[in-house]
Amino acid sequence: MKKWARKKEAINKYQEVLAKDENYVPALNNLAYLYIQGGGSKEAALELAIRAYKLIPKRPEVLDTVGYVMLKSGRKEDARKMLRNAAEQMPDNATVNYHLALAYKENGNKGLAIESLQKALKGGAFKEANDASALLAKLKGR
Description:
- The protein has eight helices and no strands.
- By secondary structure, it is mainly alpha-helical.
- It has one domain (3-139): Serine Threonine Protein Phosphatase 5, Tetratricopeptide repeat (Alpha Horseshoe), CATH 1.25.40.10.
C-alpha cells in the first residue's frame, strides 16, 4: 500500500473515532498532524490541534502538534513558544527538536535553529532526519 493511501486510511479512522467521541485527544492530535501534512486544510488542522490543546494543555505531544500546525499556518511566534515548551518537557525527542529548529529559523534565530537541529540529529534516527540534515547544512552555509 502506498504511503499516502495509508495516511488517507488513518485520516478516515481518526474521523470515525471523532464521530463517536469528538474530544478524544489522540485522534484530534494525530488528525491535525495529518491534515497539516497535506491531508486537509490548514484551518481544520489548526482547529483540531487547538481543541486537543484546550483539553490537555500540558501534554508535550499535543504542544508539539499545535506548535507545528501553528508554524505551518504562519503563526511563527506562537509556534515557537509552544514548541519550546514541548522541547522542555521532551528534551531528547528528535522530532520535537526538529520542529523547534524550524520555528527558530522562521523567527530569524539561526543560532538556536542550528543548536536544535544538532540536538535532533544527535538523538538518533527519526522520520525527518534527512530534512534536518539538509537544513543544518544550509544554515551552516555548506
